[in-house]
Amino acid sequence: MKLTIDPKVFAEAVTWAARNLPGRPAVPVLSGLLLVAETDQLTVSAFDYDVSVQATVAAEVATPGRVVIPGRVLAEIVKSLPGESWAELVLDGYEVALTCGRVAFTLMTLPESDYPTIPAPPAPLGAVDGPAFRVAIEQTAIAASEDDTVPGLTAVRIDAEGDRLTLAATDRYRIAVRDLPWSLRGMPPGGVLVHHDVVLDLAKGGISGEVALGWDDKLIGFCADGRVVTARLIDDKYINYRARIGWDHLPIAATVNRAALTTAIKRVSLLADKGMSVRLHFTSDGVLVQAGTGDLGRGTETVPCTLDGADAREIGFSPAFLLDAVGGVQQENVVLHMDPDHLQVLVRGQDSDSYQCLVLALRLA
């Protein structure tokens, strides 16, 4: 194998793929990145039997070939390369020589024949705008659980119905749902569950173009910007989240400036110890945001709001959960819908229902 490549492009592909290297690989070869050089392109891959990632970039390939290079070492090296216009990669026996300007590295390879076959992504079922999909992931994945003892709660649920794609996640204490348009190309076999880390990594990698999605009964694939991600699906039951969102049964509604409410929650939360709630009291004069105890002190701030319905009693929430819910709103104003018993709040943007987040209230002492 012999090729030349833009070192910046090479570094971006290697760095992105290396982020998905397993911490404890099932077999030693999976600690490496698989590099495949073909006509005019280089593909950098990582795989751990559950998730695979592949980044394909342009390269001048003199001699096609395949090689597995220790991934984390290669990632550190490419970050340090000088700002030259090209870098050269040459495989010679069990060694790879990487040259960039006056800098040269020689790396021992891992046995390429031991590297498992990377699964091909399922055929695309539809496509969605990349930046919009990234926002939808960020809005919903934060509501997924980190507790792997209940696999379904660690997932983001993806459903497709006609020209609407829906992402949803819950950890039992909140439900975040986002609808967005997509162009349907096939017949989806039903909704699927994907671990939230998979879609979050996809979002963190940056998505600028269209994302093609496809899934079957075992695997889901995402293709965008020369990058391909496949992931094994989570086989578990999921709640009927559609039955739990909406605000027809929540007669009290408060409309508040999103930035002002966010700032107030963050400010008074400085006096909220871990596990303590932030308390909100809604009246026609505004919403009083307060936190703290007699031992530490108290913080309060009143934020103007428009209240529709009876004055609400005091209601408490996890400050982190409430900030996540309000932070998911893209509009200037946020609407908080509440029930008379003050057991929950549904957060959405004013004049928009594409994003909704239901948060359970905390018991007040």
Q: Can you offer a commentary on this structure?
A:
With 365 residues, the protein is α+β, with helices and mostly antiparallel strands. The chain has 3 domains: 2-114, DNA Polymerase III, Chain A, domain 2, CATH 3.10.150; 126-221 and 231-243, DNA Polymerase III, subunit A, domain 2 (DNA Polymerase III, Chain A, domain 2, Roll); 252-360, DNA Polymerase III, subunit A, domain 2 (DNA Polymerase III, Chain A, domain 2, Roll), CATH 3.10.150.10. It is built from 6 helices and 27 strands. The protein has helices at 7-18, 71-80, 130-141, 196-204, 258-268, 319-327, and strands at residues 2-5, 32-38, 41-47, 51-58, 60-63, 65-70, 87-92, 95-100, 103-108, 126-129, 155-161, 164-170, 174-181, 183-184, 192-195, 210-215, 219-224, 227-232, 252-257, 278-283, 286-293, 297-303, 305-308, 315-317, 333-338, 344-349, 355-360. The strands form 4 sheets. Strands 6-2-3-4-18-17-16-10-14 form a 9-stranded antiparallel sheet. Helix 1 (7-18) packs antiparallel against helix 2, helix 3 crosses helix 4 and helix 5 packs antiparallel against helix 6 (319-327). The chain is elongated, with a radius of gyration of 25 Å. The N and C termini lie far apart (68 Å). This is Beta sliding clamp. It is found in: Cytoplasm.
List the helices and strands and how they pair.
Blueprint: E1 2-5, H1 7-18, E2 32-38, E3 41-47, E4 51-58, E5 60-63, E6 65-70, H2 71-80, E7 87-92, E8 95-100, E9 103-108, E10 126-129, H3 130-141, E11 155-161, E12 164-170, E13 174-181, E14 183-184, E15 192-195, H4 196-204, E16 210-215, E17 219-224, E18 227-232, E19 252-257, H5 258-268, E20 278-283, E21 286-293, E22 297-303, E23 305-308, E24 315-317, H6 319-327, E25 333-338, E26 344-349, E27 355-360
Antiparallel strand pairs: 1-5, 1-7, 2-3, 2-6, 3-4, 4-18, 7-8, 8-9, 10-14, 10-16, 11-12, 11-15, 12-13, 13-27, 16-17, 17-18, 19-23, 19-25, 20-21, 20-24, 21-22, 25-26, 26-27
Helix pairs in contact: 1-2, 3-4, 5-6
